[in-house]
Design a protein that fits this description.
The structure holds 2 protein chains of 2 kinds. By secondary structure, chain A is mainly α. In chain A, 74% of the residues lie in helices and 0% in strands. In chain B, the strands form 3 sheets. Chain B has a 6-stranded mixed β-sheet with strand order 8-9-10-5-11-12, sandwiched between helices. A 4-stranded antiparallel β-sheet of chain B has the order 4-1-6-7, with no helix packed on it. In chain B, a hairpin with a 2-residue loop joins β2 and β3 (16-17). The chains are: A mainly alpha, B alpha/beta.
């Protein structure tokens, strides 16, 4: 057993995580962190730390969602946005703001986002699978088509509205980790850990599904029911994630592959927590970098994840042969 | 008889039946039954029917178990009753062969159970017999097509079931691998009931005991293997075989 490899990565991750909250426009001194009277204390504990927690939760959730979608649709190029859920959520949130004035990140706004995600997945499941049966590849293509329609509607709507709707439209297309209060951030992180744990419990059902519907039935896994439950659960989590951080690209696509390359997990059950951790580290570090490049200006974090994720993806492809 | 099929009409979709003439056939307990016939004659569909799928027409599939007779349908439990190897087996490319094989124990273990010593021994036995010792530490995507086919077969044979359905299990195999697979099936006779679709009549004659011949959606022959080859119906039915 090569033990040094995971240890090396674990050490690296801890180091990165220790540095990430220190990146930003204000340079913080570690000794200030324990003195409530300093500005550094307030910046760190009230702003950066909650945002850092949120980034970890969102990164972990997106990466786990990507791993599940790739498994579910037997397609290594799947990422969580492939079914058009993110477009539906964004559309829902913007409509909510334009019509009812719900501010992004408020409870009603997040509620609309999740309802939009669930509505889309119910539509997909009832409409697409009634026509294509249980063949999930076609459901993906159908979702892809819906994604195109929804995102063009989104662009159309935005070009009539002021570009500042939804706190700046860029935020929704490239993703942005908002400042958030600590309780919400912890709730989000806890939720995504809970989701990952649940998926670990059902991971053998995912494995069974990967052998095709007929074989899954003989293994005691009802393919239709399992897929419906998985799609509903994942779209709820994705709906919530997108309504908080927008559409952050490449985390869901590249992290599962990278995890397999680095940790070589033997089972899906072992894969999921590793994917979560790597996704959490990746997004929180990317968020730190987005604040550190040109302070006080902040780049949308999705730009950073894509800039890092793209080459990583190529590296994974390269190394796999 | 383990399976009794009565007046069965099957279809790939609703409103599109495959066989106009209903099928009646049976499968003896403990036998290796071969389903033969040219491409497109309905062999795969026949297996689907036995699994309780594709039942868009009329008729019944009855499984005669110790606990009583069961009419098979999409809704009845197939866990522990069937093991199925499709002709094109989907798989997760990044999965390790070792883990792929252990999914065979899911019906007995559920989501959290650990395989027992007996499970492991049975699996090792299949692995040895199919000659895939070298493959088990690799990733599924790193295997050759023939190795992978034998891994698929090992999974199907390790899965506890009353009826094992194999759709052309010797696809992609070299002559040696083909012989190994048939030898394995031959050795399972008596304890297992196996239905296998194939085009290899020489192996059928050597290893099977029951045969079902399908031709253009009709069942043209069923019975013990000796009758089939003695009556030399082979040439009449499938002149090109």
């Amino acid at each position: 057993m090569k033990l040094y490899r995971p240890l090396l990565w674990f050490g690296g991750a801890v180091l990165f995580l220790a540095i990430a909250p220190f990146l930003g426009s204000e340079t913080l001194h570690p000794t200030n962190l324990w003195d409530p009277d300093t500005l550094g204390y307030r910046i760190f504990w009230n702003l950066r730390y909650p945002r850092f927690i949120l980034a970890m939760g969102a990164g972990g959730a997106l990466a786990v969602l990507g791993a599940i979608y790739q498994n579910l649709f037997r397609n290594p190029l799947c990422e969580p946005y492939v079914l058009g859920i993110s477009s539906a959520v964004t559309l829902g949130i913007l409509v909510g703001e334009i019509i009812w004035g719900f501010l992004p990140m408020s409870w009603p706004s997040m509620g609309i986002g999740m309802v939009a995600a669930v509505l889309l997945i119910i539509f997909l499941l009832s409409f697409a699978s009634s026509r294509f049966g249980t063949s999930s590849e076609k459901v993906v293509l159908f979702g892809l088509g819906i994604n195109f329609i929804l995102s063009s509607l989104l662009f159309l709507g935005l070009s009539f509205q002021s570009q500042n709707v939804g706190g700046g439209s860029l935020r929704w297309f490239f993703g942005f980790i908002p400042w958030i209060d600590l309780r919400m951030a912890l709730l989000f992180l806890f939720g995504s850990i809970l989701f990952t744990t649940l998926m670990m419990v059902f991971s053998r059902a995912l494995d069974a599904l990967s052998l095709g519907d007929s074989v899954a039935r003989t293994l005691g896994v009802s393919p239709q029911l399992t897929r419906n439950i998985l799609l509903l659960a994942t779209s709820l989590v994705l709906g919530l994630t997108v309504s908080v951080v927008g559409t952050i690209g490449f985390v869901g696509l590249v992290i599962p592959h990278l995890t397999r390359l680095i940790f070589r997990p033997a089972t899906t059950r072992a894969l999921l927590p590793q994917v979560f951790l790597l996704g959490a580290v990746f997004l929180s570090v990317a968020d730190g970098i987005s604040r550190a490049i040109l302070p006080p200006f902040e780049f949308p974090v999705g730009v950073i994840t894509t800039l890092i994720g793209g080459p990583l993806f190529l590296l994974v492809l390269w190394r796999r042969n | 008889m383990l399976v009794q099929v009565e007046q069965l009409k099957l279809g790939w979709e609703r409103n599109r039946l495959f066989n106009q003439e209903p099928w009646d056939f049976s499968i003896p307990k403990g036998s290796v039954t071969a389903v033969i016939g040219p491409n497109g004659s309905g062999k795969t569909l026949l297996l689907k029917g036995l699994l309780g799928e594709a039942l868009f027409g009329s008729g019944r599939v009855i499984l005669k178990l110790e606990e009583g007779n069961i009419e098979v349908s999409q809704k009845t439990r197939s866990k522990g009753r069937f093991s199925y190897l499709p002709q094109e087996q989907p798989y997760a490319p990044s999965q390790l062969v070792n883990e792929f094989l252990r999914i065979a124990f899911l019906p007995e273990l559920g989501f959290w159970g650990k395989p027992s010593e007996a499970h492991e021994a049975n699996l090792r036995f299949q692995i040895d017999r199919l000659g895939i010792n070298k493959a088990i530490q690799k990733k599924m995507s790193d295997l050759s097509t023939g190795e992978r086919q034998r891994v698929f077969l090992a999974r199907a044979l390790s899965q506890k079931s009353v009826l094992t359905l194999l759709d052309e299990p010797t696809n992609h195999l070299d002559p040696e691998g083909t012989a190994q697979v048939w030898q394995t099936l031959f050795n399972l006779k008596g304890n297992h009931t196996i239905v296998v679709t194939t085009h290899d009549l020489a192996q059928v004659e050597k290893n099977c005991d029951w045969i079902i011949g399908v031709y253009q959606g009709r069942i043209v022959f069923q019975g013990p293997i000796e009758d089939y080859f003695r009556k030399s119906v082979v040439k009449k039915l499938f002149p090109n075989y």
